[in-house]
Amino acid sequence: MSDEKKLNSSIVFRLNTWHLSRVFLSFFWLNLLIIILFLGVVVMRAETYAVEMVQTAGIEENSSEEVPQGIGLPKVLQYFYPEKLRTSLRQVVWDGFIPGRKLTHWEQLASIKYRVWVELGENNAYAYIDYPLGELLLFLFPLMAVLLAFEFLFLLDSIGKGARAIRRALQPIAELTQTARKINTRKNILSDPGLRALTGTIDNIDAAELDKRISVSSTQKELKELAAAINGLLERVHNAYRSQIRFVSDASHELRTPIAVIQGYANLLDRWGKHDPEALQESIDAIKSEAEYMKSLVEQLLFLARGDNDSLQLSLERVNLSELAAEVVREAAMIDPQHEFQTYTDHDIYTVGDVQLIKQAVRILVDNSIKYTPPGGTITVKTGSDKGYAQVVVQDTGIGIGPEDVPLVFERFYRSDDSRARKTGGAGLGLSIAKWIIDRHKGYVEILSRKDIGTRITVSFPQYEIEQSVTPDLKEEENED
To answer: N or C: which end of the chain has fewer CB within 10 A?
Structure first.
């Protein structure tokens, strides 16, 4: 027997065994319920019979003065019985003995009685009332025997039918498994058109042709669902692959330019720049500038890589966005006297997050406004709150962004036009990093921009209220302080 047949037989055996065990347990609990209900009905009839006998005084006194053994009524039920029966005792007795005669099993069963002992209150005398429990058991036993025989035959029949039903249910999976094993052997492709299309498409898909999709026109439900699932997987892989290719291509392009510049100036120095002070200084300045740019680019790439791998841990604490924004604006104004900076901040606007990362995101937005705002323009930073969110607004009077480019500005290495080229000092990764930081802090960003008018970027973080309970992270920091 092949490994595939062994595997299929093993699955069918396990599923069939599970199915039979479930059926057996169902029969067991059903039989137990029938027996309990039957005995409950018998006890109720025996108690009713005892009540009728007491009320009609049709009981026989027992001359024995010994207190009989038995089970008394619970106190809860005593109030529903006549006074004479409230202290009565119950027994199940067997009177299957006749001197000189051996009773059959059925006769012994019929001699079982349900006995109720009633205290007469006279000289500790007792009377008993017998109810023929054995006669009803003679009815129950044949009934249960017929039921058990039917259930046994049903289980025997289910062994074969269950296995066949499971094999039919697993047939599409078995066919797909067989096709998957032969997917690279075209001469062995099955004749089924749905399987052939599925196999052929999968066989032709490689890294260069991830845009191919499997036809979902098959009439078999299982094949359609599998094809749809594979198409969804291919779509996600295709998008990730395209993003990776574009990212690598853009990163290579960004690194190629400074390397070429450094090589050019190195060759210049090698040929005649050693003895030309102006050429020497120009080369040194250019090499330092390009090296600084490459360092910044590599740091940004490493930051995004750590973010993609979830290896960048956040140090959460309470952050005053008003103070943070004012500090970023102060630092920017010190190094950039060519623009006018305005700050409008509300006091006590708080969020919870990593203060260094949030500051980095705000600084990226301010630097971006500086790059694309002509000298003499105005950059305004505001803080406030709206609908439970703490907000930072960065607005400039720069060149603006076209409406078709607004949804794309957070993509890595994206530039909308030549004005956003590397001469502005960036590699197109700043906004991607800012967006990652904002998303990681469960915030969101909105952009409103008009060409040659300016851009307004609003960043919203979940607001932290001073009155609310301190988070676990903040409690630890306060304890340390």
So the answer is: C
Q: Both tokens of residue 37?
A: 């209900």
Q: Which domains does the chain have, with CATH numbers?
A: 3-159 (no CATH), 205-312 (1.10.287.130), 317-480 (3.30.565.10)
In the Cβ-directed half-sphere of 277, how many Cα atoms lie within 13 Å? Answer: 0
How far is it, in rounded angstroms, from Cα 344 to Cα 353? Answer: 22
Distance, in Å, from the CA atom of 314 to the CA atom of 306, rounded to the nearest integer, reads: 12
CB distance 459 to 431 below 8 Å? no
Residue 237: both structure tokens together: 């892989």
The Cα–Cα gap between 205 and 194 comes to 17
Chain-centroid distance, C-alpha 92: 58
Q: Tell me the C-alpha to C-alpha distance, in Å, between residue 156 and each of 8, 24, 153, 163, 253.
A: 22, 11, 5, 12, 73
Buried/exposed code over 242-269 (b: 16+ C-beta within 10 A; e: otherwise):
eeeeebeebbeebbeebeebbeebeebb
Tell me how far apart the alpha carbons of residues 37 and 131 are, in angstroms, rounded to a whole number.
Answer: 18
CB 91 within 8 A of CB 70: yes
Residue 403, SS3 per DSSP = coil
H-state helical runs in 2-132: 3-55, 75-78, 105-110
Residues near 87 by Cβ (< 8 Å), separated by ≥ 6?
Answer: 72, 119
Q: Record the tokens describing residue 165, joined without a space.
A: 């039903």
**Which residues make Cβ contacts (< 8 Å) with residue 74, sequence separation at least 6?**
none
Helix runs in 182-316, H state only: 193-204, 221-271, 277-308
Q: Please state, in angstroms and as integers, the Cα–Cα distance from residue 385 to each residue in 303, 330, 437, following that order.
A: 29, 22, 19
pLDDT in tens, the chain (481 residues): 454 555 456 677 777 788 888 888 998 999 899 889 988 888 888 888 888 877 776 565 544 556 677 888 888 787 777 777 777 888 888 776 666 667 677 777 788 888 888 777 666 677 777 788 888 888 888 888 888 898 888 888 877 777 777 777 767 766 666 655 554 444 444 455 555 555 555 555 555 555 666 565 554 555 666 677 777 777 777 777 776 776 676 667 667 767 887 888 888 777 776 777 877 888 888 888 888 878 877 877 777 777 666 667 788 899 999 999 999 999 999 888 999 999 998 777 899 999 988 998 999 899 989 988 999 999 999 999 888 899 999 999 999 888 888 888 888 777 665 444 555 555 677 888 889 899 989 999 999 999 889 999 999 999 987 654 444 444 444 444 4
